[in-house]
Design goal:
By secondary structure, this protein is mostly beta strands. The chain has a single domain, classed as Protein Transport Mog1p, Chain A, CATH 3.40.1000.10. The protein has two helices and 16 strands. The strands form three sheets. Strands 2, 4, 7, 8, 9, 10, 11, 12, 13, 14 and 15 form an eleven-stranded mixed β-sheet that branches. Strand 14 and strand 15 form a beta hairpin. It is globular and about 45 Å long. It starts with a strand and ends with a strand. InterPro entries: DUF8017. This is DUF8017 domain-containing protein. Keywords: Membrane, Transmembrane, Transmembrane helix. It comes from Streptomyces morookaense.
């Protein structure tokens, strides 16, 4: 087990303070200029230990670089290198963080993938949901046994294997945000190991409220996925109540990043949507969807709302 990790099934790092209750950065100019309900730890205060991973990062040549690590242990990661990104608790970004080996290109957000033992590489797998049927005819189902939810995606999306967590990394390859039970929109369209969007669920234990978690995750994923260098403008909505026909109640928020400095052909502006709710174990969880904007085939807001309407609880096993 790597230093700073917990055995499988652990969610919080007992040696560190609650990441939702960290002291703040010194004030500095920030083009985003928005209220931040979380406080960021000072740079260098704490971070995950660095260690060689079982597989090296796979260079994409585009705005994102994918690395895959196999582990069942958890590690705590601080995103202190990113000024506007708030450190969150109890989520998949802890997994395999200590296994990231080398730094991807700093020109764009780095997309990460972590795989649990026995799971396959990403592929179009409409049966990844097992016996759980889609509630929209012709769509595919994504199942997250860890977060006890399922949701449907349109047929032109790709369901990732159940053991695959995805997210975005910093310049050193350390994950900033991750989630499990995931799907991609148009993977590899612009560059290998790149996608035009994605969705999944992460933990939110430690948040003071559903509203807080929904707003913060919307902003965090927008920064990490589209504007890690913060060259553009971020607009995050206030959380509003969410309820659908499948019994999911909680809070929802969204964010948009515009006017991002484009340093390669795959960089775009983008948008994020979140729903924070209590899962069947009574734990806070946040469903996240991010998507490129200003491209041919952009995921419409109506499609996002339709996907959100399919979010439903699963009984914990």
């Amino acid at each position: 087990m790597w230093p700073g990790q917990q055995p499988p099934g652990g969610e919080q790092n007992p040696q560190g303070p609650n990441p939702y209750q960290q002291p703040g950065y010194p004030q500095q100019p920030n083009p985003y200029q928005q209220p931040n309900p979380y406080q960021q730890p000072p740079a260098g205060q704490w971070a995950a230990p660095a260690a060689p991973g079982p597989q090296p990062p796979q260079k994409s040549g585009g705005r994102r670089t994918t690395w895959i690590a196999v582990s069942a242990a958890l590690a705590v990661v601080a995103a202190a290198a990113v000024t506007g990104l708030v450190v969150l608790g109890d989520d998949e970004k802890k997994e395999d963080a200590a296994k990231s080996a080398s730094a991807p290109s700093a020109s764009a957000p780095a997309q990460t993938q972590t795989q649990s033992p026995g799971s396959a590489a990403p592929e179009d797998n409409p049966r990844a949901g097992g016996e759980i049927k889609p509630v929209i005819d012709g769509w595919k189902t994504v199942v997250n046994s860890k977060r006890h939810d399922a949701f449907d995606i349109p047929p032109d999306w790709t369901v990732n294997p159940p053991g695959l967590s995805t997210g975005f990394a910093d310049d050193k390859g350390q994950p900033l945000v991750t989630m499990s039970g995931t799907a991609y929109y148009k993977p590899d369209q612009c560059a290998k190991n790149d996608s035009r969007g994605g969705a999944g669920t992460k933990g939110a234990q430690g948040a003071k409220s559903m509203e807080e978690a929904a707003e913060t995750e919307a902003g965090n994923w927008a920064i990490a996925a589209f504007d890690r260098k913060q060259t553009g403008h971020l607009d995050t909505t206030k959380a509003t109540p969410f309820k659908n026909d499948h019994g999911i109640t909680g809070s929802t928020a969204s964010a948009k990043v515009t006017d991002v400095k484009k340093t390669d052909k795959c960089m775009t502006d983008g948008k994020t949507f979140t729903v924070t709710y209590k899962d069947t174990n009574g734990d806070l969880a946040t469903w996240v969807l991010y998507a490129d904007t200003g491209i041919d085939g952009e995921v419409s807001d109506d499609t996002v709302k339709k996907i959100m309407s399919t979010l439903r609880p699963l009984k914990s096993s």
